[in-house]
Amino acid sequence: MSDVSWADVAELESWLRAREVTMAGWGEGEAKTVENLWHEVQGGETLLVEEGDMVLRLVSFVQVIIRRGDRWLVEAEQVLADGRVRRRAVLPSEKFKRGESYALAAGRCLAEELNVGAGEFELLTETYRWRKERMERPTYPGLETLYTFHQVEVVVAGLPDDNFETENRLAGPSDPVRIHRWEWRLVEGDGWHYE
Q: What pTM does this model have?
């Protein structure tokens, strides 16, 4: 397994095509674009590696559990810069940046997606757990990803008791999400979901 880098989006796209990564459907429906992938790599959130004759995307992220009684806060939808809506049904989550701990990523998730400041939440470190899973997701069809999932429960005061939406504080080329729509839902199972 070896990692690689590219000078620009066009070089990344050529590299992917040369390795027969099918990019059909990227930028359509719920899928992101090659440019989005480029920004993830440049921002230290994603690593692309060659594993034998295939390309593997490596991503670590934290999922934050916020409860209201028997309901958990779930991101129901994202509105992207081009107006497309991605249906999600996942816990608040954030990709790690290179060298970041789960606690820092959780704090960044709360700040960027829910506009919650550093002093406005309590991280319940005794609830922390992690696991790995390899799969292909609709985010980048045709590109297999090895995920390292981290999950921790957080107590946050002051969030609305009804469904609500927030603006993405860091929306831009590296993050095409403009609006997050949140719902309080009963969550079946252990809450493991992926991006």
A: 0.81
